[in-house]
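Model it.
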Amino acid sequence: MPELHPRRRLDQPRAGRRRFGARLDPDAFGRFTERVARFLGTGKYLFWQTLTVIVWITLNLAAVSLRWDPYPFILLNLAFSTQAAYAAPLILLAQNRQDDRDRVSLEEDRTRAAQTKADTEYLARELAALRLAVGEVATRDYLRGELDKLREDLDTKPRKSRARSSSTDT
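Modeled.
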């Protein structure tokens, strides 16, 4: 069978082609969107946005020569719409990434819990086996009691045999 050209081999991954010499890391973009989404939910962001809106409206109402956006504030409305159009997908992307991390974490927790349960069941079986084995083994108290009984038997037997031997001697 003839050897296929290296570009056509199916058992090896294809070498990635660079287009225009730029390569984007999707994970880096995801991290950036999470930082932006996290910043959009802070009090600092709300403070600076409120301050910008107040300055914008004040300059457009009070400063006659600086009126770049008259009363209905169409440009300000356009800025808010653009911000909302970009903020919503960024927040959703950040939430999706967090869901993926939560899913992985949950799976690891389930695996760890299953392993802990298996270990606990194994230890319970081993403990039960040890209890059964200890029940069959002579304990110190049992041996002490048996030795005491033997001592009492030995103490009582020589007296009887002494009494017999002295009666036979006479």
